[in-house]
Amino acid sequence: MSWPPEIKRTPSRFRNPIGKYKIHRGPACVHCGKCAELCPLGVHRRMGKKMLAPKDELCLGPTCADREYYCIRRCPQAALRMVINPNLQAFTDYRWPADLLLSTWQQAETGEVPHGDLEYRLGNSGGGFDRLRLRLPEQEDPSLSLRENGDEVSTAISLNRRDDGRPQVRISVPFYGGGMSFGSVSINTMLSRARAAEAWNTFTCTGEGGFPAPLQKYDDHMITQVATGLFGVREETIQRVRIVEFKYAQGAKPGLGGHLLGDKVTPAVARMREAVVGNSLFSPFPFHSVYSVEDHKKHVDWIKEVNPRCLVSVKVSTPTDVDMVAVGSYYAGAHIIHLDGSYGGTGAAPDIAKKNIAMPIEYAIPKVHRFLAEEGIRDQVTLIASGGIRSAYDIAKAIALGADGAVVGTADMVALECLRCRNCESGQGCPRGIATTDPELSQLMGMDWGSQRIINLYGAWRKQLVALLQIWGLKDIGELVGRTDLLMHLDYHREELKDDDIRPFLLRGNGHRRN
Amino acid sequence: MPKKYHLHPKPAPPRFAAPGPFGIIEGDGCLNCSNCVKKSCVYSVFRKREFDTHQLMDTADSLCKNCFRCVQECYGRILSKSANPEFRSLGNKYWTPEIIASNWCQAETGKIPVSGGGYGGPFAGPGFDSMWTDMSEIVRPTRDGIHGREYISTSVEFGRVAQPVAFAFEQDSFNGAETSDHGISPRVEASLPIIFDLLPFHSFNSSVRLALAQAARETKALMVVRAEEMEENLGPLAGHLIPLLPAGEVSSLTSTLSGVRMVEVPFTSSGEVRERVREIKQINREVVVAVRMMLGPRSEENAFALAGAGIEVLHLLADEEGQEQGASSPRFIKDLIRSIHLGLVQQKRRDELSLIFGGGIAMAEHVAKAIICGADAVSISIPLLLALECRLCGRCGPGMKCPVEVEKINPSWGRQRITNLIAAWHAQLLEVLGAMGMRDVRRLRGEAGRAIFREEIERETFGQIFGEPVAKARLEKEEGYVLAP
Description:
Chain A is of the alpha/beta class. Chain A is built from 16 helices and 19 strands. Chain A folds into two domains: 21-84, Alpha-Beta Plaits (2-Layer Sandwich), CATH 3.30.70.20; 157-480, TIM Barrel (Alpha-Beta Barrel). By secondary structure, chain B is of the alpha/beta class. Chain B folds into two domains: 22-89, 2-Layer Sandwich (Alpha-Beta Plaits), CATH 3.30.70; 156-447, Alpha-Beta Barrel (TIM Barrel), CATH 3.20.20. The radius of gyration of chain B is 25 Å and the shape is globular. At the A-B interface, helix 8, strand 16, helix 9 and helix 10 of A face helix 3, strand 4, strand 5, helix 12 and helix 14 of B.
């Protein structure tokens, strides 16, 4: 594997990509081709004597207005008009506003920090990460290119911080992929994630649904999950991997077991899970063998016995006593404590659980970080955060709040052109061919395309993280852990914040405003 | 242990196609290319669509699942999507289009709303949205109630706690209500902590009332009904009715008072209410009497006085948006519940009476959260109307025509829709209780430690890191939107 992985431009797999702006070519157009000559981004193209429909997903929007190639002003016939794409109204939400979706698509396409005026750093949820800002020196814009190539800065983290004779596992970027089972997503989606994990020397997770054979090639970059339904768990699968994850709970449905609705239990899925085709699979909750930290320790010991070279990760949700749970997990022998906050993604969960049960990750990280430090064990365990990590900036904020690294899930899906229509659970699953096991729908996405899109996204994120570390004068991402002095919060640092920090969406003029 | 409580939802499709959140827009310039994306729609939206002649609308927008395949694959690029203004204009700021649509869907299917993807809403918000409920893992076990693998009880009792324990042992029967001759107060059991309250807007006709009362029987719930509207057809259902007595004399109400287990009297003054309760008990000593009172600035004072006077049940009501009435800066029901509950706890009177709170209970999660704040049960009204397809347009108030003809329903369809809604809410309550490891909803009452209140967790985390936050009034002013209280 070459390092860093090659970034290759990987455009949308759909005929009509969606951009933030739409260019309307009016009847006054005489097809002179002036705009095609002007636009260096390739929005306008002429074929023969005719102009083609504009590729408006490439358009920079109003930020282009002061450039000399601004087509709207330069058109001799004044035939062009620019509007915000009305389609955006139909796929925006508070956590993933249209800007964040479009900019994530763009990063997955180009591997670069997004251009134009897309807000790629923040969502619009009005709390947590979306109210935190990074403290950067004046006039430093991290969206500018890196200083030098960034080789002097390390984004790698170690996952084994216990001195217990088990192997060290070091990943080159401070994030890995969260569990998504075969059944909830297609084999192509799993393979795309696995190949991207291999390329960036990190991991992705099988979720609770077995270890399909095609993934075995990527054993060294797979985490296999042992969850409450024990679907597809065998000694052999546990022995394959370097990390085994216990899923005690999932942020999207804390206190509830996994859900895979009947239509998605196809013959292949049923075989893998040793279940019946078409029957909904609800994992029980909790592990009925664990009712105390001591029971939990037996679980961890069992896995360590079955696979003497693996690290054990414990994935828990965020109850009021999340700090106690974390300490208990450490004493039970876990290497990684993975906190999954309440706004995490899922293939299917009750709406009431997604919204209401357990606390958001932004609160859990500092709470657990501090508690582990007071207990004197913070440096012997790797603290990983997930549940609403959408961007490189979210990762930086999670680390500054006290995590060592992050786990991402939904962002991988968005790289594959998910637009969060939230129908993953229904019928045969995702109509866009990502979270489905329907043979026909799965064909909508190729594995090479999928791998490259995720590789590109991770590349763009790593660039941003390196640029941030350079600006702060840090040499290693580990130096950022718990550096809350590098954070500002809209509710606390009012005097120091600029208008641009406070209301990025409003200033950027795309009208995402609550109510 | 009480008998297993189980509801039987059955699909009950709506009579009118409901507006969907988004609309499909088809532009001019079809290429007639024969690669038509409309044919290949995964959900067959374009094949199933109809023109609804009653509402003059295309049903495609109600069927569309917003996957954008057609928009992104059309060769002529003539399709696009946008927000549906008809959907956006449903309800109001509190009863949002999303809440309305979710209740419609639950009334249709009887199932818990389940979806893919993470939660897409705001981080937190005002009112009930500024708290999260707890869950248990590793160090505390959870319960697996939702799939029937462990039984979780949602039943509650109204009335005073039976007092002398030793006395009860001497009885052949252990039933509190039957032994009231010996000085034990009557109690009424309901299978779930949700009371059907009077419907808002106007007085609906008898088919609506019959549907509600039948649903109350089917779900083993209780329903408030105006005494003057207790028509004959409700007679067999009297055990599930709570007649709201008019103010004034009760002696003429002897027939109303027989056969019911609980009645409600409006609050006038502490002394007058006490007198009325005494009169009612003289007619029927087995009946539990609740006092119905609007929540306002003097609620605490009045509630404590009534508790002191031995009232068995208080039914306290905020307005439909959960605000207290008659205050210059009104408090939200969640804060009122906490205040009254904690006040009674401090006075060591909390177990002497039951508290039912209503107003602003719009979703199943609000039931759990109100109980955590200290309610024994909640009462609902608008959700019952939503189950009957109401669009909250409020036109019926001034006597205009109802767009979904609520009064023309077949009572058995209405009963099924309401049963479905309650089944879905009940199942969601089990989810919340199960996640916390609770087997009994009565254990949830006042368990504020099993919730995460935004203000407290902010102080404990960001407050410790960043210090004092700036004043909320300033944030609201500068950012133009209301943050969580």
